[in-house]
């Protein structure tokens, strides 16, 4: 019952390489109601009368996506729902239903699972999601697998692939804060482990960035506002891997390129402060830091004008050449080659 | 950031006890389109025009649900889809779409993940399911979280709660074979570990029971046949925890009891052979062995007559008293108190 002699580690091709290989094995699902499969933030299928459902699944694994030492259970519950809602939002869909699969090690108590579920409940209430089912199992590490199903009319769905040259590139909120928060938490965990009980973590000074990491918000408010104004972008993605990686998804799938102005990237003063303290370049946080769960979108100028201009910042534009070019504050420009956070890759 | 002083192990209340507690935290989801939530094999929500979708999520965890030493990757892929399809079938729904979340340890190769996906593809083809999305992540143990979405007209959905006194209780296929297969595999793994390379596992003599454990079949054929004949049972569940446990779900949720005749339980000759070799009672396998994924249903005599009588066996009936009574082959009877397989509980 061995599985053959070949053994190629997944790290040799990375997460995206693996997904490409698996897509080949799966082939094209021959379902007439399927509108979009494994190539966007979420899959889309028709439910009738020009309406679609949008489904997405994300798995959070202890030691990979979170650390129980720095991540309170209730926050973890809220975040596990929010990141899936964010994927539905990134298709311009409204979240409706969620299921949860929990893998629970013996070191997790009933009280902790209850805290986790209180966090999920809060997120479900905030996003109008009904948690309708799930599965619990024993496991050696805490594992949370959430599936969220959303709804939209078929012509309201926005894909990664719709950007065209001339479109303006925009992001909501600010960038790099989640990564700054992660760095602070890692520092504080190290200090806690080294100094023990005598160490008192400084949460107040870093409240904003820590919150951005532990309790990210899915930008349902943005797409609700678009719906009210009767406007929608050409292409849309949520920033989970980091701007540098996520812009590549839009460009690759649209078949065009982009020019991004680093000086225009919105960065919170608190994020800049953390970067300064660590003697690091805050632009790196903004370009490569993941898990901000803000929205990156491309839209023609006339549609941009119809949106609430306090809710986003223009950071560049879609170009005909299939390359992403970053323009630095000093005017120099260089091509960007992926570089977002990927699991499995060696550091 | 500690989580309070209380620490009550989950094992003190078991999986079902935990689910009850969590249901209290979630409350009643206030969604008008939700038909059934966390109380059946799957959740049910309206998609319009008297039609519903049926959604179910299951998590398979290495070391809990399977052992990589005795479970070939391709079979694992097929099984992970089949057990979720079985939950949709247990609502009398047709499976349509699936998403997969994979937690992959470094000890799993690209070739193994490809084998896993080939198995999923086979199951998807067999059950008419389109695999439309998912997520891969690093993990310390192989974890497979599958969500399957099915479809039905709202009045075709069969719940656990619909059984009434006078209904006949039936099961499809045969019982206890999966458990017999598991016992054989555990024996062979032990021998392999003790005797090393010199040990040659005997797969031929135990092919049937091993196959029943490694490659269970969701009984989509049964509900397709019912649909063709225009008949459906009052109550329906798939046998995943074991007959003794699953009949309790039907009785508790229907508010009635049942009488089961042990002499009528269908058992394959191969299952009986394994029980004999282990000097164990095969009726115990049939009553308490889980993971057969056969269907247990309750239907009135006139509907039973309209079904294909080669596809099921009558094993008892629904009674007015809220108690499950087992009648032994010698005519003695005793009440049954749960006892199916539950995670978390001490052995």
What is the element layout, followed by pairings?
The structure is a homodimer of 347-residue chains.
Chain A: H1 14-26, E1 34-36, E2 43-48, E3 51-61, H2 73-89, E4 94-104, H3 110-127, E5 130-138, E6 143-153, E7 168-172, H4 177-195, H5 207-214, H6 220-229, E8 235-238, H7 243-254, E9 257-261, H8 269-277, H9 282-288, E10 295-299, H10 301-304, E11 312-319, E12 324-327, E13 333-335
Parallel strand pairs in A: 4-5, 9-12
Antiparallel strand pairs in A: 1-2, 2-3, 3-6, 4-6, 7-10, 7-11, 8-10, 9-11, 12-13
How would you describe this protein?
The structure is a homodimer of 347-residue chains. Chain A has 347 residues and is an alpha+beta fold. Chain A has two domains: 31-156, PurM-like, N-terminal domain (60s Ribosomal Protein L30, Chain: A); 160-335, Phosphoribosyl-aminoimidazole Synthetase, Chain A, domain 2 (Alpha-Beta Complex). In chain A, 34% of the residues lie in helices and 24% in strands. Chain A has helices at 14-26, 73-89, 110-127, 177-195, 207-214, 220-229, 243-254, 269-277, 282-288, 301-304; strands at 34-36, 43-48, 51-61, 94-104, 130-138, 143-153, 168-172, 235-238, 257-261, 295-299, 312-319, 324-327, 333-335. In chain A, the strands form two sheets. In chain A, strands 8-10-7-11-9-12-13 form a seven-stranded mixed beta sheet, sandwiched between helices. In chain A, strands 1-2-3-6-4-5 form a six-stranded mixed beta sheet, covered by helices on one side. In chain A, a hairpin with a 2-residue loop joins β2 and β3 (51-61). In chain A, α2 packs parallel to α3 (110-127), α4 packs across α5 (207-214) and α4 packs across α8 (269-277). The radius of gyration of chain A is 21 Å and the shape is globular. The model of chain A is unreliable at 339-347 (pLDDT under 50).
